[in-house]
Write a structure and sequence with these properties.
heterodimer, A: four-stranded antiparallel β-sheet, 38% helix, B: MetI-like fold, three-stranded antiparallel β-sheet, 67% helix
């Protein structure tokens, strides 16, 4: 696994003008043997190699390499239009839906190429869940919102098992206390923060390995944001989380690994603490100190 | 100082802005008022003309069910009974009631006061109850259309002689002529005689045609809309299809009628004048409307719902049928009902496939010859008898009622399917 992750990185360093920064970031990866990194990062859950994305011929992502360690929160930061969301959507092939979107390169989930011919997109998305920027509960009851995923995947054999799944998911999403007595109320009747946690509950109900979050707090007020952040921190013990965020404070608060994107390039990646205290690239420094972005 | 100037300018501008706003509102109210008054004028004129058709003049006669006429052999043979001269019974009754009648001419004029169909009514009664034979009963028989018109205060010109009017006056003095609710209008088919003509055959024809039409065009249209909107690749072919669907929506309906005549009747040899064929032609006509409305409805479903479904591993089909389609349903239903309402009022294509025939029998299946409500209106409007004038207006009222019910259904269905987000 580690070998696979390391091999393609060496020719990549000579590929483009960003090689310098790539090398800096790779140094982080290569230091895996040293005890500085968390031991869990030995086997990346998702490994991304040389991924390019084009929208109708226009390149949105340029040769991105990234390893996403399991049971950690990986934050993707960068100014608007830098390709963070595009990258995130590659990880469970949500980009397939977009007309004219083309992805090249290799993305492996547990060593399995998700863009391989035989890959079933539906089961991939059951393994890699996604939470969107704007809370988007179905216009159905809270219960139906959460039970929809398990139902289509036939995860429950009877009503009791379904109840169990729904309750556990709501509990994990920290929403159960608030909605216990109104599971039949429409999901859209909840407040913005509750809706977003409902969407998280919906995503974890199908027992994914990875949860992708696309700016999950951008539509929420500070209190709701704090709740969701707390939740994310909880969830990372059971799931691998990749999160796009515009808030550098948020990235610093909840993530363990951070990747900085700029104009389609993955400029710098590594331990969150190091990125925020000692960035190697000028652009990263400029961004986190608020000079660009 | 300059601040004050700016303030002044804003104040002056504000007045102008408010004025133009009021003016615009005024135009809007005026437009609505005009549209409403036109509608009311049309409706009132039709209703006032057609209302009287729901009543029919009848004359009470003492009918002697003469066994010598109805059942000369006394065997109660159904054939004898159905072939008997019931009109003769009516005539005999009239002669008894007005013994002053002398010559042939007066007799003829007297007989003409009752409808030529009055005998059928008696036959039905006898067939239902054979015990009537040999008895005398007071029975309301239908008056002729001229008497009916006269009784409703319409000018019938020279169609009633002074002698006949004299008799009518005598009848009303005796209280044996009056207007009764016209059930016949709702229970029978067309007739040459205005007083016998009813709307049911045309109504059933329209109902059958629309049933065929909706059964075919609704599923086809919705599935086409779903495929084109959700699954079809966006390329030159789908562009071409889209342009053609939009064109089809604008094709004059008579062209569809010609297509039906050529393809359905001549090549497939389907029955002429049948609601089945009418429904097929109308389905072709409403299909583009339903497709366009369906696509618009699907387009208005937020993409976030679709993404949410796909994001938790729903297949594209599941995303559409579990989420997009239910949310688009109200819009689709509205579009479909509008298409159906259009089809209901369509005349031209039905003329081409022979649904313009004179149909007396009420159709029982979609294969029986039938006509449709708008065609019936057209036929009656074309008839010279004064009695058909009010029938035409009444048929329009029935058509409008039908339309109203359909729109009501649309509103109810939409309310039922509507969901908040």
């Amino acid at each position: 696994m580690t070998l696979v992750a390391l091999k393609p990185s060496s020719p990549n360093q000579t590929l483009d003008p960003q090689a310098e920064t790539g090398a800096g970031a790779e140094a982080e990866n290569e230091s895996e043997d040293t005890p500085i990194m968390e031991p869990s990062s030995h086997h990346p859950r998702i490994s991304v190699r040389d991924v390019n994305v084009y929208y109708a011929g226009k390149q949105a992502l340029k040769s991105v390499d990234l390893d996403i360690p399991p049971n950690q929160v990986t934050a993707l930061i960068g100014p608007s239009g830098c390709g963070k969301s595009t990258f995130l959507r590659c990880l469970n092939r949500m980009n397939d839906v977009i007309e004219g979107c083309q992805v090249t390169g290799q993305i492996e989930l547990d060593g399995e190429d998700i863009y391989a011919k035989g890959m079933d997109v539906v089961s991939l998305r059951a393994r890699v869940g996604i939470v969107f920027q704007k809370p988007n509960p179905f216009p159905k009851s809270i219960y139906d919102n959460v039970s929809y995923g398990p139902r289509i995947h036939r995860m429950a054999r009877n009503r009791d098992e379904m109840d169990e799944i729904v309750m556990t998911s709501l509990e994990r999403a920290g929403l159960l206390q608030e909605v216990r007595d109104r599971l039949n109320a429409p999901g859209t009747s909840l407040s913005g923060g509750q809706q977003q946690r409902l969407c998280i509950a919906r995503a974890i109900a199908v027992a994914p390995e990875v949860i992708l979050m696309d700016e999950p707090c951008s539509a929420l007020d500070p209190i709701a944001t704090a709740k969701v952040e707390e939740l994310i921190d909880e969830l990372r013990h059971n799931y691998t989380i990749v999160m796009v965020t515009h808030s550098m404070q948020q990235a610093a608060r909840v993530s363990q690994t951070t990747a900085f994107f700029h104009l389609g390039d993955l400029v710098e990646k590594g331990d969150t603490e190091r990125i925020f205290t000692n960035p190697t690239d000028d652009r990263t420094e400029a961004y986190i100190t608020g000079r660009i972005g | 100082m300059t601040d004050q100037n700016i303030n002044k300018n804003i104040q002056a501008g504000l007045k102008r802005r408010y004025r133009s706003e009021y003016r615009f509102r005024g135009y809007g109210l005026l437009a609505i008022g005009l549209a409403l008054s036109f509608l009311i004028a049309i409706f009132v004129s039709i209703a006032s003309m057609g209302w009287s058709a729901f009543q029919q003049t009848a004359i009470e006669l003492e009918i002697y069910f003469d066994p010598a006429v109805i059942d000369p052999t006394g065997s109660h043979d159904p054939q004898d009974i159905s072939g008997a001269d019931y009109r003769g019974l009516v005539k005999a009754s009239l002669r008894r009631q007005f013994p002053a009648v002398r010559n042939r001419r007066e007799k003829k004029q007297l007989y003409r006061l009752v409808s030529s169909g009055s005998g059928f009514n008696l036959r039905e009664k006898v067939q239902k109850d054979l015990g009537l034979i040999g008895q005398t009963r007071k029975i309301w028989v239908l008056a002729s259309d001229d008497v009916d018109m006269h009784n409703k205060g319409r000018d019938v010109g020279a169609r009633l002689s002074t002698y006949q009017i004299d008799i009518i006056n005598k009848m009303s003095e005796a209280g044996i002529i009056k207007k009764r609710f016209n059930t016949r209008f709702f229970t029978s088919g067309d007739s040459r005689e205005p007083e016998l003509a009813g709307i049911l055959a045309a109504f059933m024809g329209s109902l059958f045609s629309l049933t065929v039409c909706i059964a075919l065009s609704f599923p086809l249209g919705i599935l086409t809309a779903i495929y084109l909107e959700e699954f079809a690749p966006k390329n030159r072919w789908t562009d071409l299809i889209e342009v053609n669907i939009n064109n089809l929506a604008a094709v004059p309906s008579i062209v569809f009628g010609l297509l039906g005549l050529f393809f359905l009747l001549n090549i497939l040899e389907m029955p002429r004048s049948a609601p089945l064929v009418g429904g097929l032609v109308l389905a072709l006509m409403t299909l583009p409307t339903i497709i366009i409305a369906g696509r618009a409805a699907l387009k208005s479903v937020p993409g976030s719902i679709r993404e949410a479904a796909l994001g938790i591993g729903a297949s594209p089909i599941q995303a559409v049928f579990h989420h997009s389609l239910p949310l688009a349903m109200p819009g689709m239903l509205t579009g479909s009902i509008i298409g159906m309402a259009q089809a209901l009022g369509e005349t031209a294509p039905l003329l081409m496939i022979g649904m313009v025939a004179f149909i007396v029998d009420v159709p029982q299946t979609v294969l029986d010859p039938a006509t449709a409500l708008p065609v019936q209106i057209f036929l009656w409007a074309d008839s010279p008898e004064r009695g058909f004038e009010e029938k035409t207006a009444a048929a329009i009222l029935v058509l409008l009622g039908f339309l109203f019910c359909m729109n009501l259904l649309a509103v109810v269905l939409r309310k039922k399917f509507e969901r908040r987000w």
